[in-house]
Design a protein that fits this description.
The longest helix has 29 residues. Helix 8 packs across helix 10 and helix 8 crosses helix 11. The strands form three sheets. This protein has a six-stranded parallel beta sheet with strand order 5-4-3-6-7-8, with helices on both faces. The protein has a three-stranded mixed beta sheet with strand order 9-10-11. Strands 1-2 form a two-stranded antiparallel sheet. The protein has about 325 residues and is of the alpha/beta class. It has twelve helices and eleven strands. The radius of gyration is 21 Å and the shape is globular.
């Protein structure tokens, strides 16, 4: 898949875990870890394919099995239950809608979870739920890694996500084949996944991404209201400090009518925006723009754009659903 830019901390050549009640589970870092992927939406399906392409044994589960079935053509074993997916797995990777869903699914998988298994929790779950998920991991003897990712459909399909990760140093070498298969870069933010340092950084990054997306929609709506060709604005800022590739990419989705399939859906963007404002409230910080951005996504979803790319927040500037 090409050269990877990895930020990792050196670890011993062999990693082992001593289970609390069950038979000892050992895996050398040269092994090909068996990976269970729970959740095969836009991101999870792409990650499962890249794991299989890297030569790792992969099982995948999704609540709607039909969405997971195409992965069989890529060498992924599709399972009927979360427990079937995680049984005997060295690594469990969760990429579901939100933290509550992750907790529900992991509870379903609990009977087959093996103490010492590495759990890479990549769902954007927010800060509060990350602590609860880490608590579940402790109860079941799992090694918990807070591991959200930056990137949307394209980077996920290309194995070019940026992984933000926090967790014990001892297991990082064993987890590396998984992270290297799904991402081009791993940024380690801490030793304790339960502290949620990776998830906190993810919320900060997402706040910027969502704010830019919302501002892009308002730019296009204002241009329409004033009879200004938005391309004249792009010409105006070209090459200067105000220019931004992301602005141009999201604008093009609206202007060219390419809002499906979504790289990152409106409904999911609203969920993340609510996680951001909730975290800010707990920290005693008021985020006016983040609150307004969450409301824009909610209005766009209510107009019928929930499954479209989050650039469709543009439509929230209008009373009715419009083709632009």
């Amino acid at each position: 898949m090409g050269t990877r830019d990895k930020i990792v901390t050196p670890t011993p050549a062999r990693t082992s875990w001593e289970p609390r009640e069950k038979e000892s589970h050992r895996m050398t870092v040269t092994d090909r870890p068996t990976v269970a992927v729970l959740g095969t939406g836009i991101m999870g399906a792409a990650m499962a394919r890249n794991l299989a392409a890297a030569g790792l044994p992969v099982r995948a589960w999704n609540r709607t099995r039909a969405k997971a079935e195409p992965l069989a053509e890529d060498g992924v074993r599709v399972t009927g239950t979360p427990a079937e997916a995680v049984e005997g797995a060295d690594v469990v990777l969760t990429m579901l809608y939100d933290g509550d869903t992750v907790l529900d699914v992991m509870r379903e998988a609990a009977p087959a979870l093996r103490p010492g298994t590495l759990w890479a929790q990549s769902t954007t779950a927010g800060t509060e739920l990350t602590g609860r998920l880490a608590g579940f991991a402790r109860e079941h003897g799992l090694e918990f890694y807070d591991a959200p990712v930056l990137g949307t459909r394209g980077p996920a399909e290309d194995g070019q996500l940026t992984v933000l990760a926090a967790g014990p140093e001892a297991g990082r070498a064993a987890l590396a084949p998984v992270l290297d298969a799904v991402g081009s870069r791993t940024v380690w933010t801490g030793e304790d996944g339960a502290e949620g340092s990776a998830s906190r950084l993810k919320l900060v990054a997402n706040n910027w991404v969502l704010a830019v997306t919302a501002a892009t929609g308002e730019l296009l709506a204002l241009a329409q209201a004033l009879g200004v060709d938005p391309r004249s604005f792009f010409d105006l800022i070209e090459g200067g400090p105000l220019d931004m590739g992301y602005l141009r990419a999201k604008s093009a989705l609206v202007l060219d009518g390419r809002l499906t399939p979504a790289s990152f859906a409106v409904a999911t963007a609203e969920k993340d925006a609510r996680l951001i404002t909730a975290a800010a409230d707990r920290g005693g910080v008021r985020l006016d723009l983040a609150e307004a951005t969450a409301d824009r996504f909610a209005r766009a979803a209510a107009q019928g754009h929930g499954d479209e790319d989050m650039a469709a927040a543009y439509f929230a500037s209008f009373e009715e659903k419009t083709d632009g």
